[in-house]
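The passage that follows is intended for readers who have already worked through the single-chain material. We present the inputs for a multi-component assembly, then the predicted structure in tokenized form, and finally a short commentary. You are encouraged to pause after the input and sketch how you expect the pieces to fit together before reading on.
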Amino acid sequence: MAGIVGAFHELDAAVEAIGVLKKKAFGELTVYSPVPRHELDDAIDAPVSVVRKFTLVGGLLGASFGYWIAAWTSDYWPLVVGGKAIVTWIPYTVFGFEVMVLIGGLATVFGMFAKARIPNVSRAVGYDPRFSSGHFGIYVDVRPDKYKDVEEVLRKAGAVEVRVEND
Amino acid sequence: MARSTSSVSNAEILHRPNIASADVQLPAVKNYEQVDNEITGTLHPTKAWFIGLGAAIFFLLIGAGSWIYQIYSGLGVAGYEPPVMWGVYIITFVFWVGIGHAGTLISAILYLFRAGFRTTIYRAAEAMTVFAVMTAGLFPILHLGRPWKFFWLIPYPNWRYLWPQMKSPLVWDVFAILTYLTISTTFLYVGLIPDIAVLRDRETNPVRKRIFSILALGWRNTHREWRHFAKAYLFLAAFSTPLVLSVHSVVSFDFAMSLVPGWHATIFPPYFVAGAIFSGIGMVFTILIPLRKWFNLQHYITINHLDAAAKLCLFTSVVVGSAYMQEWFIAWYSGLVHEQQFFANRIWGHWWWASVILYLCNMVLPLSLFSQKLRRNVTWLWILSIFINIGMWFERFVIVIPSLSHEFEPWQWGGYVPTWVDYGILLGSFGWFSMWFLLFIKQLPVVAIAEVKEIVKPRFRKDRQQMTDSAGDHHVSHSALQGSSSHGGSH
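Having made your guess, compare it with the prediction:
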């Protein structure tokens, strides 16, 4: 993996660079930002996150498991009280709800990790510690013969630093 | 724009009346680097911090010693005397679960409602939640005669094929509290990931840098990470919101599902939830007001933020106060003599003084927050928060002890006197909670760096142009103009 990375002081400079780079389609872009910004989202125009599907599936599985564990254990070891029903859905909704939240919440985090490709402690290509502080960054995964063109776009937009990154 | 802002002093802006909207601003915070520097600057341990930590550990040891003595001697040393078999431990359990509600309310519910004032206070409140629930979770175990058998409450496959009674509120409690602890901890950690990445990137000590690298999970602030992070955070908030409401409802079922006078009321779940949020906000004030002073964070946790939180405190106080009044109405309207006598006993009986503390601290004193002047008086807010903490502990005392000591028939009536073991463990719980909180505030940022940056205006090219122009106004020179044009960024 090799490419070129540009660091920006200003948000609108980074947004402009993203627009030009997307138009010229040099290669895959990775945008670094100390905070999530709508301006960057609009410029990148990425699809909606699929994390919600993990949430839905996790929530449904959790609710089913919560009801099932309560019903199955009651049926397996019946505690008969005054002829009342052994399995009854009203009190077991507590288990259904709590386990839905538990599994749904954990599935959401799992989905975020899977889609955001973390944990990945050793990956650092294109990253600069300034990108967690006050700078915006754009990394372009591009062939070496296009380095000059990409550098020109980044500098013209207002990059304060441009450098080549190798894996 | 920049010039018009600078014409009003920061102190003036900070003391303007609050506008509780999503665009609450931090006028004294100028850029992202300032946020990093000032918030990470709070992480260096000081002498006062070590003294505080030492005191917390000392109180914890008192609690641990009391518990060891209780395990050795039996539960009888804890002041239990039939019919009062729930005492300080269950009172303190409910107290700490309640404290644990404000964090998720502030971080999740106010997030969904886009209440801007939450941004600077939610991290401390969230950490408080996790440590309060950790503290609360100890009390059902402390309350057991054989604490090493606590896991019998969890439905796990075992050789006796014996399962817990799934219709018991005590088992519901286990599920609710464990889910709440897990989700609150997850929510806290997920929110911390971008901030840990900031710490990792600034750290110079190789060992600490490695630890932060692992904890940050390789977070690089990419657009892909932020996109999925934002969605995950939103859904976690959406899940946490009903969870907050359910947990204290389930805790209230521990009481309301019984037939004991004073407990058997359908109003208990909303009454407990409002009380929990009220007590949690009280504890947020108790912790945050000294913290913002010690850490010099007054321009982050501004008077406006405290004012908005005080309004929330007032609202929950009014809800709790009306629940107290409705309890009286329910007792009268039920026509049940036991219920009516119980409430008469609350005022004219043995425990009248506890009721006075409860009504005074939770219902009367918070009415002072109708005054904007008092809402914006930090000293009064802190003093009031102490009253609220005391009042909310006594609320649970009034729920537990008078009910159990004054059931249906006079032969069932009894008394209750907490012993030094009870007080030792109560003190120990504050030591345990404070120890974790103090360790947290010096290892991880107590104000959310990434979220604060979201409300700070980013740099734009026109800002650089304005800076250049203003430099040009003062020092008209050709070299400055040439320098700006040679950068190519301000074309």
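Commentary: Chain B has a mean pLDDT of 87. The longest helix of chain B spans residues 169-202. How closely did your sketch match?
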